[in-house]
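User: Show me a protein chain along with its predicted structure.
Assistant: Here is one chain, sequence first, then structure tokens.
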Amino acid sequence: MTSPADEILDIVDENDQVVGQSPRGEAYAKGLRHRCVFIQARDAEGRLFVHRRTSTKLVFPSLYDMWVGGVVGAGESYDDAALREAEEELGVCGLPSPRFLFKFLYDDGAGRTWWSAVYEVRCELPVSPQVEEVAWHAFLPEAEVERRLKEWEWVPDGLAAYERLLSARPAFEDEAP
């Protein structure tokens, strides 16, 4: 089995155009811009899937996250990566295709930068998250997530995605079928 650090990623420029490829570990170490997906998973009652990352994660170990997702592999589309990552991290098979919401360039100013495609999906299946990825999980009401924002240490890119989602939410609600 290959290490996550050996996974090949597309390296992209500020316009999200592929300019090369690199192993994930090297991309992280050198601060090479790549692609990621963020999927907000909700259960049948509308609660958000929240988890704490394992201490072995390459980026943001042991922090809380309100998204499932991860890197987009070399040659993989954002949509394909969103479905793959959601099913892998939730430990389910047969999810509906996540709905694309928006894309943004995450840049923490300290060498961590990636294009981030944000999705949502309804997960009405029993979840069984990967123990390599998820140390703790629960579906929480959004009001509780809001309260926990001040108490728990969250992944910074996930917070950036959440803030953008909250500011854009009225537009997405207008588009809902």
